[in-house]
């Protein structure tokens, strides 16, 4: 029974790996699985990522961190004690209806899921536009002020007025 | 009646329930102290009111804060007072207002009778007299008194800066209308971003009080608005303020109305209207002017001149403030205001109130006599604002109307038809075809195309028919859901479910689910869950919405125009009408705010959240190497902002090797990879109970700096509550020094050099080459080691033993006897009363004369403690009056209304170390008093409540100490405290580096820097007690400032002999003084500080490499290049002719 023991061992190792892996979503178009040294670090990472905005080059990114799940690993080993049997079911078989229903349900879920994602993407885009607009207008204001500060207009005027300006 | 005190003590651990018999209020400390005397004769300090009592005591606390503020800064303006109060009382929900202390006038009177400073305070007097202030509705409270000359005390300015950084709610729209354009009342307003510069009550609720019809938004709508533009600005249709008619203001499409160029005006005019108003008598001139305006020339509207006297406004002078009509272009000076425009109703003469103070900043709001005031509203009828309707909207709405009608018609028919279709569908095909065709024809009379198609499809099947019907429906754009023939949709729905594409049903279902879920969420709740570090809770996450684009645009335009006017030979008066001086300042404030808000964007790669920057490991090693000797067995090393948590580990390695067993504690808000003794905590929330007693604590190291070192200060203040015996700090120079704290800490050493260059890195940052991004400062933060006063002796011994104070400066040990210039000068000062000591007395006086002369041109912001010896003298000359006043206060300021004076005194004394260490304010006083006579010194010191006790006990002895030829410890004390501060360069200068992250946006700083820094230079020079140099200094004094800055380097170059000079002055008077241990120890202090002065000499000419700089590098770059060997005593002057364009310092990357 060495092979089953081995399988069990591999699976345990894999589970341990999953527990210390963090799933990073929304990175840009991709997502990533990040393996940490231990579970504690993974947990800390998730809490930090949830708590603070994730900054990249000085800009916040909508990155999310979640604990990884077994299903996220394409190369996952099979659970050691699971046996899968495949058989053909005749349309007259009562199981055929069950299987059909499950298939339908699965498709329905998928459709709903897609709808949700679509909606979310739209929302995100709206938010991004909104934020960009805010940033742009504020930056425009800043630029305007900066332009006259830079060309010395303010300081010259202040000198005319005899006012001292505090640049800092 | 027995009064009982109920509450908790020891941080909530112990309950208190005691009878109290007396109370007192101490105003001398940093914070006002309220104490009660329990029956068993113990003073209990009251800290925080119970939550349930907060409302009751709020007004009282505000009054106390007011007294405290006025007591400390009798000269402060009302504005700073309010700012201060708001800052202090920020934990309460209601903002402090004048009403709050109206009930406590008696208390204020009581104190002003007992306290000289308070009695003399103009500000308090005004409050006591209850200056008549009319208000209507809710009023912006930021009215600053104008009669009050703004004499900015040095400390006060510092505080202002801090307040600025802390308090974002500070009166931002000071220069702009702070009332609703519709109802002319204050309150919660929504600012239009456009050029009209108006504000509105956005919701009915906000304008409830004045029955404002408001913009009629809902609260949710307001919150979701990003950039609000009023309809006028949105459609570029503004009303002419002259005739009230709407006109296009869109310059690209041929404008009809033009805006007044004044920065704060926001009114539009038809060229004709404004010309007629400006030139009422002469038509020719008016038409000429009209043409100019149309051609694009800017103009200031008649609002900016008084109707009565035709003169401009001066907000600084109360009489020359404007009263502006809200409905037409008419303004009066306060002094020119007709009597019938009154501040209150006068029934006999049938005068109704038309003027209100305090509604507009520094202006009076009036309705001129042209307008009939509605008695119910208290204002004229509010029909003055016309919002244009959008041209497109108009079209759209018209179309919609006709459409709706049509649709209604169609619908009826459709319904009828549907029924028939349904029936027909069931009928036989051939019949069906015929009848259907008929129906379709009758229903869709205008859809001929389809009808034709229909005809051609005559012989087609039923399903085709259905399709056609639906096409017709679509074309008509009918809400077809309910009318859809169910027979045809049903099978479609069934087929859809088997395809994984998103059908509308699923989508709707999902959306409904989402809506349900999101309604249970609120932004507030989510932000609550996120634990932000307490230091950042009120960060600039939201930019002030009062900085509207219109205001910025207008102001920028106005400033340009004003300058243009001036440079074309216009008068300052004219320019001021366009743009008042305050506007320029305001603009810079905005810039600052925007810069902070935009920091992540502006700095991109170099932005680091929460100001986090870590010290590199090799630098930490150096620090650990030095620090280890001060650590004793059993100590706890606390890193309150541990970053990557390297420091503790390095420390542990070293200490383990030395056989010392120590404990470690590391705090940070973000988990580091290395969790050695780490606790994820907000340092501000660590309780003193959690750590061992202060004498076993060593704290450090590198707090976030924050804007103007605000964060660093916070971290240090928190650390001080633990009373650690040692504090090792990497903080920027503008951080408040620990010898200024109460109780003060002593500086063991300061190293401005070791953290220069690339000493820091940004956490987690990786550049394109996968390397950590380094960070370095043009103006490196020094490394300080501060000791608690009672440990100073020990630590200084260690310092001298391991050569920490000398290795750097390489001064031979016998330096102890050789005085550095500071001491010489200090001695000089001291000797003034005792000419027999004969150290350059004449020079001393000369220098002082010089001082008074130059101090005139110097700006007031300079705090004396940042300048060196010379400035201290200046302070004396400036503040002489104050000092004598302070003397008296010392006696008078004891406010306790209690039977038990002595006890309280000894108590307050007890927290002091055994040797008389002075507090910063005291020190200033000491120095001042010091010059006149020893006796006076003693008395002056008495001015401070802490020191008082000692002095009162034995004035004579202290006086003797100070007047004695042996120049006792007091003398040294003063040096040891006074000098380090002199050494770190000016505070003023520090400011730019404080928000170092913004460095490259401050390119234009140099201008102001150079202006700021002359005084320091002079001070530095003056320290050198050298005659020929002095002559040169005198030269400086007479020269224009700009020249002075140019000449610094040259002059310095010429004074080679200075270096040796101090050593040639072994003041005989110091010899005998080394008797006591204390003074001998203290004598090290000046030498330690000398580190900063002497060092460059040994280093020889250092290139002006940015980043290698110690203090000197930054401060006196130019100087050092010119004359490397002579920098003694010159340090504090930041050199004006600083060569780097990025001189503002801060984090720069290559």
From TrEMBL, chain A:
One of its GO terms (molecular function) is nucleic acid binding. This is Uncharacterized protein. The lineage of its organism: Eukaryota, Viridiplantae, Streptophyta, Embryophyta, Tracheophyta. InterPro entries: Epigenetic_reg_gene_expr, RBD_domain_sf.
Automatic annotation (TrEMBL), chain B:
It comes from Ensete ventricosum (Abyssinian banana). Residues 871-882 have a biased composition (Basic residues). Transmembrane segments: none annotated. GO terms for molecular function: zinc ion binding. Residues 179-234, 239-305, 306-372 form the Zinc finger PHD-type domain. GO terms for biological process: chromatin remodeling. The keyword Zinc-finger applies. The keyword Zinc applies. It comes from the Eukaryota. It is found in: Nucleus. Residues 451-484, 1114-1124 have a biased composition (Basic and acidic residues). InterPro entries: Cytosine_MeTrfase1_RFD, Mtase_EDM2, NSD_PHD, PHDvar_NSD, Znf_PHD, Znf_RING/FYVE/PHD. PANTHER family: PHD FINGER-CONTAINING PROTEIN DDB_G0268158. Gene3D superfamilies: Zinc/RING finger domain, C3HC4 (zinc finger). Residues 451-492, 828-933, 1096-1150 are annotated as: Disordered. Signal peptide: none annotated. GO terms for cellular component: nucleus. This is Zinc finger PHD-type domain-containing protein.
């Amino acid at each position: 029974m060495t092979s089953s023991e081995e399988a069990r061992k591999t699976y345990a190792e894999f589970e341990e790996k999953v527990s210390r892996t963090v799933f990073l979503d929304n990175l840009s178009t991709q997502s990533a699985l990040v393996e940490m040294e231990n579970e504690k670090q993974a947990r800390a990472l998730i809490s930090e990522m949830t708590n603070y905005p994730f900054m990249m080059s000085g800009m916040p990114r909508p990155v999310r961190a979640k604990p990884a799940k077994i299903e996220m690993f394409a190369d996952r080993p099979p659970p050691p004690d699971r046996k899968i049997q495949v058989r053909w079911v005749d349309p007259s078989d009562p199981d055929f209806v069950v299987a059909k229903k499950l298939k339908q349900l699965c498709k329905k879920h998928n459709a709903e899921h897609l709808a949700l994602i679509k909606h979310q993407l739209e929302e995100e885009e709206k938010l991004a536009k909104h934020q960009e607009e805010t940033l742009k207008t504020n930056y425009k204001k800043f630029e305007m002020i900066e332009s006259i500060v830079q060309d010395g207009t303010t300081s010259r005027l202040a000198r005319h007025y005899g006012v001292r300006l505090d640049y800092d | 009646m027995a009064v009982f005190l109920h509450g908790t003590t020891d941080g909530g651990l112990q309950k208190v329930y005691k009878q109290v018999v007396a109370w007192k209020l101490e105003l001398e400390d940093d914070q006002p102290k309220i104490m009660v005397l329990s029956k068993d004769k113990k003073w209990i300090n009251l800290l925080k009111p119970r939550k349930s009592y907060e409302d009751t005591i709020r007004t009282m606390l505000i009054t106390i804060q007011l007294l405290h503020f006025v007591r400390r800064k009798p000269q402060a303006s009302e504005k700073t007072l309010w700012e201060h109060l708001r800052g202090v009382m920020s934990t309460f929900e209601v903002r402090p207002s004048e009403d709050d202390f109206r009930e406590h006038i008696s208390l204020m009177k009581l104190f002003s009778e007992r306290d000289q400073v308070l009695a003399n305070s103009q500000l308090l007097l005004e409050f006591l007299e209850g200056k008549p202030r009319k208000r209507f509705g809710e009023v912006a409270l930021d009215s600053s008194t104008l009669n009050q000359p703004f004499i900015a005390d040095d400390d006060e300015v510092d505080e202002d800066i801090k307040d600025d950084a802390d308090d974002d709610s500070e009166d931002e729209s000071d220069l702009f209308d702070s009332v609703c354009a519709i109802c002319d009342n204050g309150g919660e307003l929504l600012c239009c971003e456009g050029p009209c510069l108006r504000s509105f009550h956005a919701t009915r609720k906000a304008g409830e009080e004045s029955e404002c019809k408001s913009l009629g938004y809902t609260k949710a709508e307001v919150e979701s608005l990003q950039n609000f533009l009023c309809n006028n600005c949105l459609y570029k249709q503004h009303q002419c303020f002259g005739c009230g008619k709407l006109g296009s203001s869109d310059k690209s499409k041929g404008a009809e109305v033009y805006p007044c160029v004044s920065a704060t005006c926001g009114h539009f005019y038809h060229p004709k209207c404004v010309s007629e108003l400006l030139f009422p008598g002469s038509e020719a001139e008016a038409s000429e002017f009209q043409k100019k305006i149309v051609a694009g020339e800017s103009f200031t509207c008649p609002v900016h001149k008084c109707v009565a006297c035709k003169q401009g406004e001066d907000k600084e002078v109360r009489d020359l403030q404007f009263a502006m009509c809200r409905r037409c272009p008419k303004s009066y000076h306060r002094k020119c205001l007709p009597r019938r425009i009154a501040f209150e109703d006068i029934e006999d003469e049938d005068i109704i109130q038309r003027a209100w103070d305090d509604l507009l900043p520094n202006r009076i709001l009036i309705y001129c006599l042209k307008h009939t005031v509605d008695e119910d509203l208290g204002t004229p009828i509010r029909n003055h604002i016309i919002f244009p309707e959008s041209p497109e909207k108009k079209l759209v709405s018209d179309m919609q109307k006709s459409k709706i009608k049509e649709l209604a018609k169609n619908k009826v028919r459709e319904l009828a038809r549907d029924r028939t279709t349904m029936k027909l569908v069931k009928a036989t095909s051939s019949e069906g075809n015929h009848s259907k065709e008929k129906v379709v024809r009758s229903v869709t009379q205008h859809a001929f195309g389809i009808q034709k198609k229909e005809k051609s499809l005559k012989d087609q099947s039923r399903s085709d028919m259905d399709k056609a019907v639906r096409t017709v429906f679509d074309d008509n754009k009918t809400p077809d859901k309910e009318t859809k023939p169910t027979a045809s949709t049903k099978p479609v729905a069934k087929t859809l479910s088997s395809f994984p594409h998103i059908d509308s049903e699923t989508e709707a279902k999902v959306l409904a689910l989402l809506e349900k879920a999101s309604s249970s969420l609120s932004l507030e709740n989510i932000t609550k869950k996120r634990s932000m570090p307490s230091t950042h809770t009120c960060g600039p996450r939201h930019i002030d919405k009062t900085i509207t684009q219109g205001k910025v645009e207008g102001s920028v335009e106005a400033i340009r125009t004003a300058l243009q006017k001036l440079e074309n030979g216009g008068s300052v008066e004219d320019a001021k009408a366009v743009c008042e001086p305050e506007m320029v300042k305001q603009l810079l404030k905005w810039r600052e705010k925007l810069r902070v808000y935009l920091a992540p964007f502006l700095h991109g790669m170099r932005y680091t959240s929460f100001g986090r920057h870590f010290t590199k490991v090799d630098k930490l090693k150096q620090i650990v190497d030095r620090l280890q000797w001060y650590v004793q067995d059993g100590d706890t090393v606390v890193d309150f902002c541990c970053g990557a948590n390297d420091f503790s580990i390095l420390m542990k390695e070293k200490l383990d090797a030395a056989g010392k067993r120590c404990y470690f504690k590391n705090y940070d808000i973000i988990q580091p990879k290395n969790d050695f003794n780490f606790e994820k905590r907000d340092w501000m929330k660590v309780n003193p109970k959690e750590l061992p007693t202060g004498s076993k604590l060593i704290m450090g190291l590198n707090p976030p700096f924050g804007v103007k070192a605000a964060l660093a200060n916070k971290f240090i203040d928190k650390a001080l509550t633990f009373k650690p015996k040692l504090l090792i700090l990497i903080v920027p120079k503008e951080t408040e020094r620990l010898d200024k704290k109460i109780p003060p800490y002593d500086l063991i050493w300061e190293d401005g050099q070791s953290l220069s260059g690339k000493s820091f890195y940004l956490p987690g940052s990786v550049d394109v080459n996968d390397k950590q991004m380094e960070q370095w400062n043009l103006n490196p933060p020094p490394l300080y080691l501060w000791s608690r006063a009672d440990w100073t002796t020990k630590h200084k011994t260690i310092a001298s033993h391991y050569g920490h104070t000398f290795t750097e400066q390489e001064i031979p040990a016998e330096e102890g006897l050789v005085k550095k210039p500071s001491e010489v000068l200090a001695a000089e000062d001291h000797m003034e009363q005792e000419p027999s000591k004969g150290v350059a007395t004449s020079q001393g006086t000369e220098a002082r004369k010089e001082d008074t002369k130059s101090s005139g041109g110097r700006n007031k912001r300079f705090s004396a403690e940042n300048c060196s010896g010379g400035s201290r003298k200046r302070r004396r000359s400036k503040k002489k009056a104050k000092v004598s006043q302070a003397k008296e206060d010392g006696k008078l300021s004891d406010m306790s209304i209690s039977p038990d004076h002595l006890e309280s005194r000894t108590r307050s004394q007890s927290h002091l170390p055994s040797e008389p260490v002075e507090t910063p304010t005291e020190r200033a006083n000491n120095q001042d008093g010091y010059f006149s006579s020893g006796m006076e010194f003693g008395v002056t010191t008495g001015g401070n409540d802490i020191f008082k006790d000692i002095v009162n006990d034995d004035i004579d002895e202290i006086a003797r100490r100070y007047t004695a030829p042996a120049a006792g410890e007091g003398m040294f004390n003063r040096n040891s405290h006074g000098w380090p501060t002199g050494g770190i360069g000016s505070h003023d200068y520090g400011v730019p580096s404080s928000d170092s992250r913004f460095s490259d946006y401050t390119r234009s700083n140099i201008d102001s820097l150079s202006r700021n820094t002359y005084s320091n230079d002079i001070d530095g020079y003056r320290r050198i007690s050298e005659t020929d140099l002095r002559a040169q200094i005198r030269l400086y004094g007479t020269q224009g400032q700009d020249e002075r800055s140019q000449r610094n380097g040259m002059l310095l170059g010429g004074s080679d002999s200075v270096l040796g000079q101090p050593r040639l002055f072994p003041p005989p008077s110091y010899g005998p003084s080394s008797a006591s241990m204390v003074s001998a120890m203290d004598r090290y202090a000046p030498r330690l500080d000398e580190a900063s002065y002497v060092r460059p000499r040994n280093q020889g000419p250092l290139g002006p490499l940015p980043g290698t700089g110690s203090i000197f590098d930054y401060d006196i770059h130019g100087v050092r290049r010119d004359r490397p060997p002579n920098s003694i005593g010159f340090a504090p002057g930041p050199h004006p002719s600083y060569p780097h364009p990025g001189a503002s310092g801060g984090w720069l990357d290559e």
